[in-house]
């Protein structure tokens, strides 16, 4: 309700938040709860009460607590919404008469509306089997209209106004897609692969209706799986270029993300990191076993920490793929994490562990892509890097490529594209960025045998 200014210091495994009355800008900041290792929390305010989303007391997927502004500390927190094993609570949006919970249930994001006046609750329904929804910009506190963002792998990004009382919605804007795009010509679905330990790993797929008839088709498998960052099944106009050439696009929601809750993340970090890689292999094997594709028709892609995923999988199961795209890949894990002069290293101990601890050192060494390159056949590989990249310094992918060239036993293409004027996120200009994507798509299409007729340059 805009009565307080809130600021905080946020880390991977802990937070510390302060607040100040908005009408007393020269006053002193007050702390909510001092930083404690492993305690995460965030807050909003309504009518003299702080609403806090926290993992306190073993609430792995977070719970919602309340506390008076006058006594904000943890000792005074009262649970409003209990922790649930299968539902991840991300945050809340407060209105005069409503509370909106942004959650993830069984891998799908959802918005739950609570009416403060009646106590009634309802979940906003959506027509597609897999999708992504989030809270939009809601500047008005005293309103019954919730602005939300909705998309799926076949529905362009859409902005809706949702009446929390009447439950009616109005489409305000949808991303335009040039080229005569018709969503009815495409299919999106979700399947599950069985991991080595029996866990069910979700895979989101999208393809043209005429692209797959139950026999192996070209397929591009994308993955990330770190920092708890979830690759949601959202729309990409760029991706249509692949779909219209008959490619199935798939996202492997491996551990290390939070697709199936906070535990899904915890099971893919520290000394559980190998789950991320074996989950991805399991997804590829599932897609092959169920005739979506074959090793001769499957490519894969990941960027940054997803590039680490690519490097690890290339060492573990190179025979499953025809081609791989590794964008700005984090592949020299041990050396990077030992160098505390690199700005991100110390903060990253909460994700990968500290290799000065022998247990973490030997575990990192067991999967670090650079350290595990060996004399074997690898698929065709495109590696990109940025000379000005502050997150993954250019020499990591460069030395990885050099080692691959030295040891690999095949004649498949191994291309390194160095962006001499770019950083971690490729070219910054709109059209230069699209040219980068086009280059990567061209590589994939060539390797999968889907190149258009050659034209003179």
Characterise this structure.
With 457 residues, the chain is an alpha+beta fold. It folds into 2 domains: 4-174, Methylamine Dehydrogenase, Chain H; 183-447, Rossmann fold (3-Layer(aba) Sandwich), CATH 3.40.50. 19% of the residues lie in helices and 30% in strands. The protein is built from 9 helices and 23 strands. Strands 16-17-19-18-20-21-22-23 form an 8-stranded mixed β-sheet, with helices on both faces. The protein has a 4-stranded antiparallel β-sheet with strand order 4-5-6-7, with no helix packed on it. The protein has a 4-stranded antiparallel β-sheet with strand order 8-9-10-11, with no helix packed on it. α1 links the parallel β18 (219-222) and β19. α3 (274-289) packs across α4 (305-316). The longest helix is centred in the C-terminal third of the chain and has 18 residues, at 430-447. The N and C termini lie far apart (59 Å). The model has no long low-confidence stretch (mean pLDDT 95).
SSE topology sketch:
Layout: E1 4-10, E2 15-21, E3 30-31, E4 41-46, E5 49-54, E6 63-68, E7 78-81, E8 87-94, E9 98-105, E10 108-115, E11 121-123, E12 132-135, E13 145-151, E14 158-163, E15 169-174, E16 186-194, E17 200-208, E18 219-222, H1 240-243, E19 248-252, H2 262-266, H3 274-289, E20 298-303, H4 305-316, E21 323-327, H5 333-338, H6 349-352, H7 358-367, E22 380-386, H8 395-407, E23 414-419, H9 430-447
Helix pairs in contact: 3-4
Task: Give a brief outline of the structure.
This protein is an alpha+beta fold and 457 residues long.
